[in-house]
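Narrative of activities, Objective 1.

The group set out to show that a structural description can be obtained from nothing but a protein's sequence at a throughput compatible with the screening campaign. Below is one input-output pair from the validation batch, recorded exactly as produced.
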Amino acid sequence: MDISAFPRLALAHLPTALEPMPNLSRHLCGPNILIKRDDCTGLAGGGNKTRKLEFLMADALEQGADTIVTVGATQSNHVRQTIAAAVKLGLRAEAILWREVSRDQDYETNGNVLLDNLMGATMHHRPPGEDLNAEGEQLTQELNASGSKAYFVPTGGSNPIGALGYLDCAQEILGQSQEMGETINAIIVATGSQGTQGGLLVGFAANGSDISVHGITVSRPGPEQEELVFSFTEKTAEFVGLDREIKREQVICDGNYYGPAYGEPNDAMIEAVILCARLEGILLDPVYSGKAMAGLIGKIRAGEFSSSDTVVFLHTGGQAALHAYKSTFDGN
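Output recorded for this entry:
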């Protein structure tokens, strides 16, 4: 599918590498694991949101924005990247952080929070239970009423415009795997605000590929997330004029690895982060990619993938958050 008709800026270092993880593959006695390095997109440490921001920021500039508003959890990777995109383009940035997770001083002041403040954004804070997107839209309206030209970027950059970044990524993966002579059986990715998984599903469908996309949820049970992703996918498919149906059963979300709650560590995540660091020199984050890798490891151990399969782990970035979870990894 040609998405060149949509406004786009060059913010990400693309294409990101698709590379093997031979030591982890050997350690798990499982499939051939490849990693898609969307942690290396640049822009204040990189991450998957930068692909979305290429399209979202282009739309903001077309609308004459001088201020960008966005929202996320306290240690939001999305907020960090959105602030970076704004300042790179000479725009003001305001962000609302949701105190969904209560931890220690490192969590409140280090990691992404340190970087948000370093980049000079105006930060607002909200208690748990708030509707973040509604709060962001309200702040945008208030800024516009005071004379600004504010543009709202939703949680995770997840709307059909932002999802265009992952239509493009799907095509990128297909081209790289063909060059490598690899036949990919499945993609594993963290799924939260739905945009990355939904964009990949539409992107693969648009290219006539039947690669399955397995979302590992980071904040809610699998069936609930599947409904959200399917709805998002339908909206994105309509937005781009996809002429191929994406069926409900193609949306796969596994909710067995995010507990006890969003942003809260668990043993499987800790093992996954340590294994990737010590076997491959690859750093994962505790909230998204660490739990997604725990899902991949769990699926391999459960026999869901055979040794003849090739599986791509999409690294969504977020390593800055490791500094906010120092106490989790002390002594490991």
